Amino acid sequence: MPLKLTILGSGSAVPVLGRGVTAQFLNINERRFLIDCGEGTQLQLRRFKVKFQRIQAIFISHLHGDHFLGIFGLVSSMSLLGRTKKLQIYGPEGLEEIVRHQFKLAQVYLSFELEFVTLSCKDKTLVFEDASIQIFALPLKHRIECYGFLFIEKQDELKIDKDKIQEYQLSLVEILQAKRGETIQRENETILAEQVTLPLEEPCSYAYCTDTRPIAKLPAWIKGARLLYHEATFTQKHNDRAKATGHSTAADAATIAKEAQVARLLLGHFSTRYKYTDEFKIEAQPIFENVTCVEDGDVFYV
Amino acid sequence: MPLKLTILGSGSAVPVLGRGVTAQFLNINERRFLIDCGEGTQLQLRRFKVKFQRIQAIFISHLHGDHFLGIFGLVSSMSLLGRTKKLQIYGPEGLEEIVRHQFKLAQVYLSFELEFVTLSCKDKTLVFEDASIQIFALPLKHRIECYGFLFIEKQDELKIDKDKIQEYQLSLVEILQAKRGETIQRENETILAEQVTLPLEEPCSYAYCTDTRPIAKLPAWIKGARLLYHEATFTQKHNDRAKATGHSTAADAATIAKEAQVARLLLGHFSTRYKYTDEFKIEAQPIFENVTCVEDGDVFYV
Question: Strand, helix or coil at B284?
């Protein structure tokens, strides 16, 4: 299972019972991240049985309260429960200052190191990379500075096609060369890696885009993602509100998903003015078939 | 019903499912206050069906996250739901700065006026008064600056003893004088107000004291309160932890209640290390009989 996504909160600015403010837990290739952290996230993590001490980094999209106010309580609890492992927090300018100031006022001394990475980019930018994944920040368009995130599983080495070992009489050294994608050069023969290896599978990837008005560049940035979460605060009947407040409609999100040719679209961040989420699905599905309106506690696998 | 207290959160620093961080809703003589406002308080207000737009002021004891982090979300929601009435917030130095700074960063413009009253006192101090109640701040002793609060119903005018009207042949003017507590001066006779009025009932009062180590002056400050909420983070077996962290044990709280001769003691702010609250009651009751360990959602009347 390369990717498991747990929806911790799927509502917009005003939380209601049963639909908390925004937060998601992502496990991709055994790397564990929290994406946004609205008020009450630490309780949602408990409710949905996520071991929160294993989170290595938190990604904050923007400084509206429903996306980051849970950080203080979560980080305090991590400390009170004895965490020692460093925690990284990615977010826009201002986040580090406000978090450190608040802990200073409360005279809270954490049991672990808090490392901030301040995001500041005007185009898709690589912000994290290790042996198994890459994470990109995507500058969104909201009322204040805001980022989406694209998580991509890194390709392992190529897989050798076993039939070809016999056919080409490959030595062990040559097999390793091919796995690394290198050309095998023999005295009278050149063998390209793709002649003896299997075609690459599509890498596992997840794009998280909230809060934002629809962005023309976004489909190119997230092309072919296996899973896309895109906000749909409104439906088309409130398109004027969406435009005025820097949000998207279900139709906007579906159009992005279609243009980006993603495999699956998740909709969330619903305004509390809608009693049922059916309206969002009915609007999105004629544009993009594989769409789901998320609920708190939903889990998705890729 | 002069006083109704709703426990919104009864836990200490680390919230768990079923026991949220500190917050209480108090209705005293139809004045409505929120006392402390830990993370998630807006959802607890919804859960326990409190109409939060009617709150006229919030009293924050201190700047530890479990007592004030819910302010940002609650105030934002009040604004998004169209509040126009001014809201007062009483709390220690630093609270106004952090709240205003956070709203500024998020570019949140509230639909109503937020008025801060910064507390700073070394002794019991009157901080609010209107026609029907008085509120005092009580400087507590915790790791950082911290205040308790005493809410007192103001006495109505005195009640006339009807038998005395006949006995003293009181005129209407004289009755009104006596009700106001004034002495009635006749040509050959002086009648004191207490001669013709009924003895005063004990005024309705509520003392809220958390977080604090036991304070020698506290019983004098809250003498005879009808209801006392006092923190009991620990029991005596963790008295060393209580001392080290600036908290009280159940025995400490019961001793305060006894010395203050309050009518009823509520215990809360329990450390999550205790599985059951029975331990607290068993420790407190031999010292002070009328004691209750509170749960989220409990309602108390005076």
Answer: helix
Regarding the domain with residue range B3-155+200-301, which homologous superfamily does it belong to in the CATH classification?
Answer: Ribonuclease Z/Hydroxyacylglutathione hydrolase-like (3.60.15.10)
Residues of chain A contacting B42 with CB distance shorter than 8 Å: 15, 39
Domain boundaries along the sequence of chain B? 3-155+200-301, 162-196
Candidates B102, B145, B271, B273: best to mutate against A (most CBs of A within 10 A) is B102
Give, as one character, the DSSP assignment of residue B237.
G
Distances (CA, A) of A90 to A7, A60, A121: 19, 6, 13
User: How confident is the model over B135-171, as pLDDT tens digits?
Assistant: 999 999 999 999 999 999 987 778 899 999 999 999 9
A92: closest chain B residue by CA: B105
Instruction: Verify whether residue A66 is a known catalytic residue.
Output: yes
Question: What local confidence, expressed as pLDDT, does residue A248 receive?
Answer: 97
pLDDT digits (tens, 9 = 90+) for A44-86: 999 999 999 999 999 999 999 899 999 999 999 999 999 999 9
Other beta carbons less than 10 A from residue B102's beta carbon: 22
Which residue is closest to B63 within chain A, CA to CA? A106
Inter-chain CB proximity B98 and A101 less than 8 Å:
yes
Bridge pairing between strands B291-293 and A57-59: unpaired
Does A212 contact B at CB distance below 8 Å? Answer: no
Smallest CA–CA distance, residue A107 to chain B, in Å, is 7
Nearest by CB to A76, from B65, B81, B98: name it.
B65
Residue B38 to chain A, least CA–CA distance (Å) = 9
pLDDT of residue A72: 93
Question: Nearest Cα to A283, choosing from A227, A245, A223, A242?
Answer: A242
List chain A residues with CB under 8 Å of B144. Answer: 106-107
Q: Does A107 touch chain B (CB under 8 A)?
A: yes
What is the mean predicted confidence (pLDDT) over A194-218?
92
pLDDT tens for residues A168-203?
Answer: 999 999 999 998 889 999 988 999 998 999 887 778
Q: Which residues from A are below 8 Å from B94, CB to CB? A: 105
The tally of CA atoms less than 13 A away on the side-chain side of residue B43 is: 26
Question: How many other C-beta atoms can be found within 10 angstroms of the C-beta atom of residue A158?
Answer: 18
State how far the Cα of B246 lies from the Cα of B299, in Å rounded to an integer.
28
**What was the pLDDT predicted at A18?**
83
Would you call B244 an interface residue with chain A, using a CB distance cutoff of 8 Å?
no
